[in-house]
Amino acid sequence: MKAAFYTEHGSYENIKIGILPDPQIDENEVLVRVKAFSLNHLDIWVMEGMYPAEIPMPHIFGSDAAGVVEKVGKCVKHVKPGDKVIVYPGISCGVCEKCLSGQDNLCNQYFLLGVLNNGVSAEYVKVPGINVFKIPDDLSFEEAASIGITYTTMWHSLVTRSNVKAGDVVLIHGGGSGVGTAGIQIAKMFGATVITTVGDDWKVEKARQIGADYIVNYKNLDFVDAVKQITEGKMCDIVIDHIGKETFQGSIECAKRGGSVVTFGATTGGEATIILRKIFGKNLRIHGVYMGTKGEVAHYLQFFPNPLKPVIDSVFELDNVQEAYKKLLSRQFFGKIVVKI
Ligand SMILES: [Zn+2]
């Protein structure tokens, strides 16, 4: 099969296009003909060797995809060849206490497709049968490929962990990112008021179009001051911080007493200075989030394509996959960057 892969850690410029063997499935697995995959920052960390585990080489990368079922193992009954499916990347053992109680992202063996095994940047990918979900009606492969990591992480952060509700004020950093766009839609769906940040003026109107109530260009205005002004000093019920080092202390300042601050991603670095007094002094809850559960996916998929609908920035051909990663690193995008195969 045709695949994009790399044979050593380093920049996206190491990515090669070539022919690798087709995956062989066992009786519990599904073979999917990949039609589209979307990019995540995780792909870059794995590519650059920042992920704290040995990555098998040559490595087919990428975690989020959508495509058509090509073949199913004999124990897989919920999909059949020809079905259009989302390839959901969260893989767990399936038999431990956490898995059996529906908390598969707390499984000791939990990992994401495309990290410790071959991912989705190829014509075919194999996954456990329980990792494919039928694509909701009226979603393209490109849109369906953009759901997995972003909507699961944001649903788990806002709904499951922070209990978002009507009237809440939610700050979501990076409104133009994949998680940012997903988070704005989910928070609005629950009737919250959304404040978001962007780093470019051209993103302001786009953030407004997907429902953000207040958009702050953090390059022109300190976001903590902006949140104080917007909320008249009341601050936020929930703050979603996937930026990390550059913003985390500010995020704590932006939370009101008893509020929640969620951390994941940490795209600017994971070592932040934190003033503990501000955490206990305000009775804050700090939530670390790594994905969510398959049960949450099965639940939130019913809200596509309305009110939830992935925002696609751009679509690249597989042969131009290096350009796609270059764009991801440039931050000059709004929504998800997708590669079609
Ligand atoms: Zn398990």
TrEMBL record:
Gene3D superfamilies: Medium-chain alcohol dehydrogenases, catalytic domain (3.90.180.10), NAD(P)-binding Rossmann-like Domain (3.40.50.720). SMART domains: PKS_ER. Residues 10-339 form the Enoyl reductase (ER) domain. One of its GO terms (molecular function) is oxidoreductase activity. It comes from Persephonella hydrogeniphila. This is NADPH:quinone reductase. Transmembrane segments: none annotated.
